[in-house]
Write a structure and sequence with these properties.
403 residues; alpha/beta; Glutaredoxin; five-stranded mixed β-sheet; 20 helices; globular
């Protein structure tokens, strides 16, 4: 049983790695590929293959999914697959391809600058790519920097320039920066050039660079970078469905925010994570605990400013319920939360959101009544015409059952 479980986990790990390391081949027409290459001033990498070709399939599975290969090809080339016996027949014929796989590197004008045939391991394939890149000015400059780095150049200005060049190609500099910083004493990190290297290249929540940013988060320039890192980390956590990453993010927020601010951010982050990853059972469970044991409890004793903040939280939460939740019991609970808040402090936005939830429950009369009340409240409060018009349009959609 343990062997079976290990095998399953191994397969899943491989699939996850494949999902995040893959040459991204464009599905645009050949004409648009050429236009993109001209716009981005890049070479075009063309994989001419046949569906029955064994070596072609081997390259797909073993080389195009290699992390180093995919990183370089996605950075430096516009990548295109041409099925020689299907949709890519015109390209195969234009360049007289009759051996599969054939790999061509083509300039934006459509001229072949380098061409090879047959399958090969990743390291040899990367050398082919370098040969093609050396035919271009920008590619040659990059390879000179890469070669100097590989030979041990670790001078501060060189590292700054090399990272800047890599940033132009959207390459990850984490390993380069961490290798550079690891040999520096901590006090030298305060040097202006080293600070710039950290600010411009740290984009993940680990390592010496991130620790430095975290320790200097009260300075605006470092706070801005930290916000970028946290936002990017959240997007990556959602993409990989990595709930463990939220724990580390929570620890960061607890360090840089007040307890109340951190709690607010962390709750919203978990809710958004479960919603975005479509883990709706977890979302509902977390939302009910948050609403009933935190949001509503705090609302009853909060001052006006805090109530406004809590209302915003409830607005966001009820919007997520309307957008993605189908469970009638859960929807009815969300209606109850809004009703409880509106008894204390009626709010047109909350009334409208409650109308939306009733509509989703197919309780159309209640939805119409609540949206009408919200509209009347806006008019009483002399709200701007644009907002009133938007609420009127929502009411019309409810009446026509086309919300």
């Amino acid at each position: 049983m343990k062997k079976i479980l290990f095998s399953v986990l191994l397969v899943l790990t491989c699939l996850i790695n494949l999902a995040h390391a893959q040459i991204k081949f464009s599905k645009e027409s050949w004409e648009k590929i050429l236009a993109t290459a001209q716009k981005e001033n890049k070479l075009i990498f063309v994989d001419v293959y046949a569906t029955w070709c064994g070596p072609c399939k081997w390259m797909d599975a073993n080389v195009f999914t290699n992390k180093v290969v995919s990183e370089k090809f996605n950075a430096f080339f516009v990548n295109y697959k041409a099925d020689a016996e299907g949709s890519g027949m015109n390209v195969a014929q234009k360049y007289n391809v009759n051996v599969y796989p054939t790999f061509m590197f083509i300039d934006p004008q459509g001229n072949v600058v380098y061409r090879v045939e047959g399958s090969k391991p990743a390291d040899q394939f990367i050398e082919d790519a370098k040969t093609a890149l050396r035919s271009t000015k920008n590619g040659n400059i990059y390879l000179l920097y890469e070669d100097a780095y590989n030979k041990g150049n670790r001078q501060s200005q060189f590292i700054a320039d090399y990272c800047k060049l890599r940033n132009f190609y959207h390459l990850n500099n984490h390993e380069i920066v961490e290798t550079y910083l690891a040999k520096l004493p901590n006090d030298s990190l305060n040097a202006p050039l080293n600070q710039q290297i950290i600010i411009h290249n740290c984009r993940q929540m680990s390592g010496k660079a991130f620790e430095y940013i975290l320790n200097h988060h009260t300075e605006k320039r470092f706070a801005n970078v930290l916000e970028i890192i946290l936002n990017q980390s959240f997007k990556e956590a959602v993409a990989q469905k990595d709930e463990e990453a939220l724990i580390q993010m929570s620890q960061v927020y607890e360090k840089i925010k007040t307890p109340e601010e951190a709690s607010h951010i962390i709750h919203n982050q978990y809710l958004q994570f479960y919603f975005d990853t479509k883990a709706f059972k977890k979302f509902i469970s977390y939302a009910e605990n948050y609403a009933e044991n935190h949001l509503l409890v705090q609302y009853k004793t909060a001052d006006d400013t805090k109530q406004k903040s809590l209302q915003d939280n409830l607005l966001q939460l009820s919007f997520l319920y309307f957008s993605g939740i189908k469970d009638e019991r859960a929807l009815q609970k969300a209606v109850g939360w809004i009703e409880e808040v509106n008894k204390i402090n009626p709010n047109p936005q909350l009334l409208s959101n409650q109308a939306h939830l009733h509509y989703k429950l197919k309780q159309y009369d209640q939805a119409k009544t609540l949206q009408t009340q919200a509209l009347q409240m806006l008019r009483t409060n002399n709200e701007n015409e644009q907002t009133i018009q938007r609420y009127e349009e929502t009411l019309q959609k409810i009446e026509k059952k086309k919300l």
